Amino acid sequence: MNKIRKGDDVIVTAGRDKGKRGTVLRRVDAEHVVVEGVNRVKKHVRPNPMKGQTGGIVDRDLPIHVSNVALFNPQTKKADRVGFKTLDDGRTVRVFKSNGEMVEA
Questions:
Q1: Beta strand segments in the chain, E
Q2: HSE (CB half, 13 Å, CA atoms) of 17?
Q3: How many angstroms separate the CA atoms of 16 and 99, rounded?
């Protein structure tokens, strides 16, 4: 069970992009995620005619550690911690720690 998954709306809590909000595009490994518009760098790319790539300077989103992001709670409009709760039918769902509401995903 991952507390932060692909498609979640998150807020960066530490680092140079602190306070930025974005969507998780993908999980790189167990501890890193790529967030849209966060940790953006410029990469100089060489042209590759075999693959049809043009050269130039490209903006890329690099991975950020999971400990530096928190799930966005739409009710409180703030970053929130996540816990797990088992329902009566046996399913395990994610819940916000502040108000106990289920995470929509």
A1: 9-12, 21-27, 32-35, 40-45, 56-61, 64-65, 69-73, 78-80, 82-86, 92-96
A2: 22
A3: 29
Q: Is the pTM of this model over 0.70?
A: yes
On the question of pLDDT at 105 being above 90, the answer is no
pLDDT (tens digit per residue) in 7-50: 999 999 999 999 999 999 999 999 999 999 999 999 999 999 99
Helix, strand, coil percentages (3-state) for the chain, rounded to 5, are: 5, 50, 50
Amino acid, res. 84: F
pLDDT (mean) for 69-75 = 95
- Give the integer Cα–Cα distance in Å for 22 and 58: 20
Structural domains for the chain: 9-74 (2.30.30.30)
Give the pair of three-digit tokens for residue 48: 């590759």
